[in-house]
Amino acid sequence: QVQLVESGGGLVQAGGSLRLSCAASGTIFSVSSMGWYRQAPGKQREWVATVTNSGSTSYADSMKGRFTISRDNAKNTVYLQMNSLKPEHTAVYYCYAGLRTGVTEPTAIHWGQGTQVTVSS
Question: In angstroms, how far apart are the furthest CA atoms of the chain?
Fold first, then answer.
């Protein structure tokens, strides 16, 4: 069994910052990429950012310069630092991890339950 538990969401005023965390736990053999998606009300889920196990990062164009993704491999945890937030950043943010639960198991994507981020104007 694998769990991804997110934390750090909440209500913040425009211009503020939030740091999301997502910790993977359970039967984990290895973790490859970790990252974040988000889903705003009435919209499809969209990719936010990814970090590989070697630390390489990539971002959706609209997130560059405002969001920073990082990870702690020892803790199987991924972070998303969000600065200068705007109301349009309001969404449920979901973390994911590509991981293997055993040496003979293939990599599978696991998801967190989502954390609400609300930015007030």
Answer: 50
